[in-house]
Structures are given as structure tokens and as C-alpha cells.
Amino acid sequence: MPKFAVDDSSGVKDKNLVHSLAKGFRVMETFTAEEPELLQSEIARRAGLDDGTTFRMLNTLVSLGYVAKVPGTRRFRLTLKPLELGFNAIARTGLRDLARPVLRSLVGEVNEAASLGVLDGVDVVYVERAQAGLVRMGVDIRVGSRIPAVASAIGHALLAFLPEEELEDVLRASRFERAGPGIPGSPEALRVRLAEVRHDGMALTDWASVNGLRVLAAPVLDRSCHAIAALSVAAPAMRASAEEFAAAVRVPLLARAGELGLALAAAG
After folding, report:
1. Domain 90-267 = CATH 1.10.357.140
2. 14-79 maps to which CATH number?
């Protein structure tokens, strides 16, 4: 579907749409982080509108405070007012409520099970999950399940981005038991592993020989780039090699983790 096409898959008839409102949003959507200031002609071309309609839309948006003229130029830019709409949508929203649509979006992209976990002491606690259809996994993970942070991909994604004092507390209190392939057996080995996770931005555990699963996890970061949660995707190992799984899941996983981090930061 083209970027600015009207999605009528919900069955809403054309006559029930306010096309002028849609055009106004199309005008606002032409601005990007890379090009925050645009000429009227550039806006018209990107929005697929004629010059007259674009002129009226811009004047209306300027009068409402959503768009501003750049002083001394013929360019326009978005104001901060559109942010108010987003802030109103997520203000006072809890972690699970913010994560739920993100997880559903991630599941839709990768067609596998996805989870959100937070650190509680030395364990990761799963606080939200979503999965595609009736997928049956090799382990029984549900909301409220706990696993050792030092022995899991989702735990490694969290620990790799903790402040040093918090990480040291977890390492001191954890039991290092080789629960599966590639799981570090000591604090020193785990630190080496966590350095790799920080470099890659994600953590992978390949437990094909234990429970038939592969898990890829990424941290959800705050403004200080410290982990406040982590997202993970799990898939049966029979479907793809570890390299193929990571290649297919990496981009959507990192994108959704970043999206949730921004939402949490905005929600305070």
C-alpha cells in the first residue's frame, strides 16, 4: 500500500471519510527527521496534492499551531504540538499496556512468539507475551514465569546494558550453572559474553539440542541507554539455522525494542 493511501480494509466506505482531514495528515507526514524543513512545492509533491490544496492545508495547520513558517525563508516545519497527541495517548500508561501492541506488531512481522521481560533480583520475570496462532513451544513460558538472568538470551540483553553497580550485584548473587549450550559458567565468562551483546545490540541462545528453541533478545533502553526491560523472540530450531533466524528477526526486533523505549520515556 502506498504511504499515503487510505486503508479501506476495515470496510469503511469512502463516503464516510473526511478527505480534507486525511490530506492534512498527509501534509504533516511529509516532514522527516532527515528533512524537517520543506518548501511548499516539496510538500505538495510528497503528499500528492496540488499547489492550491497544499497552500490551504499549510495555512490551516499554521493557524492551528501544528506547522510553523521558518523565519526568513519560504520553508515550513512541524511544531512540537503534534507531540502532545502522542503524549496524551501514552501518558500514565503502564509497561504492559505499552508493550502489548508492540509485541503484537513484532509477532506479525516475524510470525513467532515474542515476550517482554524485566529484571527482578537475579531473575528475569516475563510480564507480557504474544504469539502467532497456536504455536506450541518446547518450554512452558507464560506471564509471571521466571528464569535466571545469567542463563538466558533475554537476561543477557538486560544485563549487558545495566549500570555497573547493578550488574555487579546480580553477578555476586547469581548461581552459575551451565543450563545449556553457550551459557557462561562464571562471572568472568559472562562479562565476555555481555561485551559481545553490547557490540551486537542483541543476544542469541541456540538451545536446539536442549529444548529445540532458538531465542533472540534485545534491550529496551531508557534515555541513559540503560536497560529497563528486554524483548525476545523464540522459534523452533527446525525452521531455520541460527544464522537465518537471527537475520530474519534482528531488524524488526531492534525496531520494536526502540519503539517501546521511546514510548516508555515519553510516558515517564
Report:
1. no
2. 1.10.10.10
**Calpha distance 84→188 (Å, rounded):** 46
What is the 3-class SS of the chain, one letter each residue?
CCCCCCCCCCCCCHHHCCHHHHHHHHHHHCCCCCCCEEEHHHHHHHHCCCHHHHHHHHHHHHHHCCEEECCCCCEEEECCHHHHHHHHHHCCCCHHHHHHHHHHHHHHHHCCEEEEEEEECCEEEEEEEECCCCCCCCCCCCCCCEEEHHHCHHHHHHHCCCCHHHHHHHHHHCCCCCCCCCCCCCHHHHHHHHHHHHHHCCEEEEECCCCCEEEEEEEEECCCCCEEEEEEEEEEHHHCCHHHHHHHHHHHHHHHHHHHHHHHHHHC
Q: What value does the mean pLDDT take over residues 90-100?
A: 70
Q: State pLDDT tens for residues 38-66.
A: 999 999 999 999 999 999 999 999 999 99
Q: Nearest-CA neighbor of 125 among 230, 261, 33, 248?
A: 230
Cα–Cα distance for residue pair 193/207, rounded to 1 Å: 16
pTM here? 0.64
Map out the domains of the chain as residue ranges. 14-79, 90-267
Domains 14-79 and 90-267 share a fold: no
Measured N-to-C along each axis, helices 40-47 and 51-64 cross at an angle, to the nearest 10 degrees, of: 110
